[in-house]
Write a structure and sequence with these properties.
single chain, alpha+beta, Immunoglobulin-like, Aminopeptidase, 4 domains, eight-stranded mixed β-sheet, 15 helices, 27% helix, hydrolase, Peptidase_M14
């Protein structure tokens, strides 16, 4: 493969997986180095500084021989190119600045001697799988090299089909937390089923030939004639979900209990707030202590000049108007500062108001302002404001704890609108088919199923009505200027970082102590009502032995460990060999059931422990259930990438895809959850047989 083709392939993968490191914005651009020259006809590997990304794209389009991944530096781009003396002159004339001659072609004899003296590396396939979806065959591989410390080693995979057709593609080095993991690439389209793959490296290493295995390699039971499905026809808000739960309980009283989880959430509400002054010049942020819906929306605040000398800072609160009379000196000039006013309001009305100085306004004279109106800023006029009771459906013929239990829960993250569609579609299939399908009836008679469609109703209401990318709940633990209303879309706790095992508070990676971060872990482990509800549910029903946490998007199928510590990338303890086999074997079954709906295949590289196939997620709920409560816990990420045959690219679908896509996700992943129930039934039967 040519250098240009290799770089384009690598760039495609990097664009999906890696954000190039950049120096701080304030770093000064380096001075131009002394002029570099090449002898006539000489070639060299040269590091250039390009003025911008556009220049890099022009080089790629022109087929330039890019030798390594470009890097950003102080607004410019550093790129390594193989050029001869003529190309060096052309690039210099186009504004590229040669920074370093890394290697010259004249060094070849010396390098050959060194290469002959070096020992070739050893390569090993970690994965080699093929599958067919949408009439197209794909191959995905992972290869590990023993040259783990060499960041420049290149690995190429060569494939062969039964008719002798061959081809090859490069792999990309993958590191996590500074530790080498393997080389890989996204699934590659092939003309037919591959029968052999081999790998070679730039160091001279070669793998043994491997026959790729079919993925996922399991066959789900056929859907019987007359099987009922397709019970969702629109995105569903928490209000809609609550109505659906109520309807199912009324429609199937012999098969359903509704469980009110013990911890009420904050509800769809916030404190009321206003800027007193001009945030661009001088302002104090005044905030209500009660929530806006508790009589504080519409309260007015103003500052006035008393018009008299030697007056102290004073206030009155009457008829829902807070009037602040600013202090004056002997000449009657206002002398109150923003700091004075903020401190005074907080001290004078601690049960009703708090205030802080806007960033950049400290110590400046307080302006005469008002009246301004306090408001909670919420836009969802149809959403109940009261604390919310999270509900679970309990489905089964026998619901006394004597049957093996399965938990499916979704929408921990508010913006993942498709996930409650999955769990509700799953619940409806079990209930609607009970009377007409013997297989469903046997499952519902054998297993105790728990479904929590919306773990995070407050955040979901905010996502539907105010800010669709809201990830967290609505509890605002921020203090001081972090409570500025300009940060309203960044408040809340990431519930899937708020559990006790492998948590941020224990030094694990993948969560934050910054209240404005998207992965804010909260003030303490299980500080939030929503995470406490998940734990309370499983503790109250110890027969729950399997659980699936439904997220979106990306098409992952995962299990513990889900977190590691950065130093040395030390994960939580790995499952035993037998447990790991159970996780993977079950995954194959469930992935097969998902693909039966519309051919969607979860990639083998996206199937495995969370910490290995996605990232470290400190304090996530699957780790909590597995390590703390002994539950076999998985995670879905619904919404698999879709292959675009025209562009020859994998394309993401997002958190809130067009409903047709969300509907498709609900249908295929509900089928996966039905297979999870079969897994629970079969595991219980096997354990019973072992005891006999």
């Amino acid at each position: 493969m040519s250098s240009r083709a290799r770089w384009v392939a690598v760039a495609t993968v990097l664009a999906l997986t890696v954000v190039p490191a950049a120096l701080p914005a304030q770093a000064a651009a380096p001075e131009d180095p002394p002029a570099l020259t090449l002898a006539s006809g000489e070639a060299a590997l040269v590091r250039f500084r390009l003025p911008d990304e556009a220049a890099l794209q022009r080089l790629v389009n022109q087929g330039a021989d890019l030798a390594a991944r470009p890097r950003n530096q102080a607004g410019a781009v550093l790129v390594d190119l193989v050029v001869d003396d003529r190309q060096l002159a052309e690039l210099t004339g186009q504004g590229a600045v040669p920074m370093q001659v890394i290697q010259r072609s004249s060094q070849r004899p010396q390098l050959r001697t060194q290469l002959q003296a070096a020992q070739a590396d050893t390569l090993q396939f970690l994965q080699a799988y093929w599958w067919t979806t949408g009439g197209k065959t794909f191959l995905q591989t992972q290869v590990a090299t023993t040259a783990t410390d060499d960041p420049d080693v290149e690995i190429t995979v060569t494939w062969r089909t039964a008719d002798g057709t061959t081809g090859s593609f490069p792999l990309v080095r993958f590191e996590d937390s500074g530790e080498y993991q393997y080389h890989y690439t996204l699934p590659r389209p092939l003309p037919a089923k591959p029968v052999q793959v081999t790998a070679t490296s730039s160091l001279g290493g070669a793998s043994r030939a491997v026959t790729p295995a079919a993925w996922p390699g399991a066959t789900p039971p056929a859907t019987p004639s007359g099987y009922q499905k397709d019970f969702v026809d629109a995105y569903m808000t928490p209000v809609d979900v609550r109505a659906r739960i109520k309807r199912l309980a009324r429609q199937y009283p012999n098969l359903v209990d509704v469980i009110n989880l013990p911890n009420k959430t904050q509800g769809y509400r916030r404190t009321a707030v206003a800027y007193l002054g001009n945030p661009a010049a001088a302002a104090v942020v005044v905030e209500s202590v009660p929530f806006g819906d508790q009589g504080m929306n519409g309260v007015q605040v103003r500052t006035v000049d008393p018009g008299l000398p030697n007056r102290p800072l004073a206030a009155t609160y009457r008829d829902r108007v807070l009037t602040l009379r600013l202090a004056t000196d002997a000449g009657g000039k206002v002398i109150s500062t923003t700091d004075d006013v903020a401190a005074f309001v907080t001290a004078r009305y601690p049960q009703r108001f708090r205030a802080f100085v806007e960033d950049g306004s400290a110590g400046v004279p307080m302006p005469i302002t008002g009246p301004v109106r306090l408001d909670d800023g919420l836009k969802g006029t149809e959403v109940p404001k009261a604390p919310w009771t999270v509900q679970a459906l309990r489905i089964g013929k026998v619901r006394d704890g004597s049957k093996p239990g399965v938990l499916a829960y979704s929408q921990e993250h508010a913006r993942e609108w498709a996930t409650p569609l999955v769990t509700l579609e799953f619940a409806e299939r079990l209930l609607a088919n009970y009377a007409t399908d013997a297989t469903t009836r046997e499952l519902v008679d054998s297993v105790d199923v728990f479904v929590v469609p919306t773990v995070n109703p407050d955040g979901a209401n905010y996502s539907f009505n105010d800010y669709n990318f809201q990830r967290k709940n609505m509890v605002n633990h921020c203090t001081g200027t972090s409570r500025d209303p300009r940060y309203r879309d960044s408040w809340g706790v990431d519930l899937n970082r708020n559990y006790t095992v492998g948590s941020f508070f224990d030094g694990y990676v993948g969560a934050s102590g910054n209240c404005l971060s998207g992965t804010y872990a909260g003030t303490a482990e299980l500080s939030e009502a929503e995470s406490g509800n998940v734990v309370a549910l499983v503790k109250a029903h110890p027969n729950i032995g399997l659980a699936m946490n439904v997220h979106s998007y990306g098409g992952y199928f995962m299990w513990p460990p889900g977190a590691y510590k950065a130093d040395g990338r030390v994960t939580l303890p790995r499952p035993t060999i037998d447990e790991s086999k159970f996780f993977l074997d079950s995954a194959r079954r469930i992935v097969s059931a998902i693909s039966a709906e519309r051919g969607t295949v979860t990639w083998p590289s996206y199937t495995g422990p969370v910490a290995d196939v996605l990232y470290s997620a400190a304090g996530n709920s699957a780790d909590e259930l597995y390590y703390q409560l002994g539950i076999d816990a998985w995670d879905f990420e619904v919404g698999n990438d879709r292959w675009n045959e025209t562009t020859q690219q994998w394309e993401g679908v997002g958190f809130q895809p067009p409903f047709d896509e969300a509907h498709g996700e609900s249908q295929e992943y509900a089928g996966g959850l039905v297979e999870l129930v079969r897994v629970a039934r079969d595991k219980a039967a096997a354990e019973s047989s072992d005891r006999e």
